């Protein structure tokens, strides 16, 4: 469960996801000219099969006016196109979900890895 951060945030006003996305998209547009320089950005709704969507910043394209996540474009450039850990991303009627490691997870998520989550090669001798 995430802790309450009221004591930490008293002096600083929290920024909502839409404002955060606008600020980041304005920064990203300096690196990616395809993005609208006005910095129009948003937080997309949660998608069950694609847990990264609600935690990825979506920016408006200059050419089409549509929104997309520049996460692959910025992957090797050092810019982080995701909302910070702890950003609210979904409510399923019972539980709140928050961004954790770029994925929208329930607040009681423990982070245990299953064999399906392992992407590294397993040390198995081949015959």
UniProtKB/TrEMBL annotation:
It comes from the Eukaryota. This is ADAMTS cysteine-rich domain-containing protein. It comes from Cuerna arida.
């Amino acid at each position: 469960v995430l802790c309450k951060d009221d004591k930490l945030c008293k002096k600083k006003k929290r920024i909502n996801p839409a404002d955060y996305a606008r600020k980041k998209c304005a920064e990203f547009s300096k690196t990616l000219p395809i993005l609208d320089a006005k910095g129009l950005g948003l937080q997309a709704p949660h998608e069950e099969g694609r847990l990264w969507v609600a935690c990825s910043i979506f920016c408006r394209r200059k050419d089409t006016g549509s929104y997309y996540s520049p996460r692959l474009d910025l992957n090797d450039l050092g810019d982080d196109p995701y909302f910070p850990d702890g950003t609210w991303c979904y409510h399923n009627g019972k539980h709140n979900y928050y961004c954790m490691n770029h994925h929208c997870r329930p607040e009681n998520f423990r982070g245990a890895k299953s064999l399906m989550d392992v992407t590294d090669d397993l040390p198995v001798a081949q015959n």
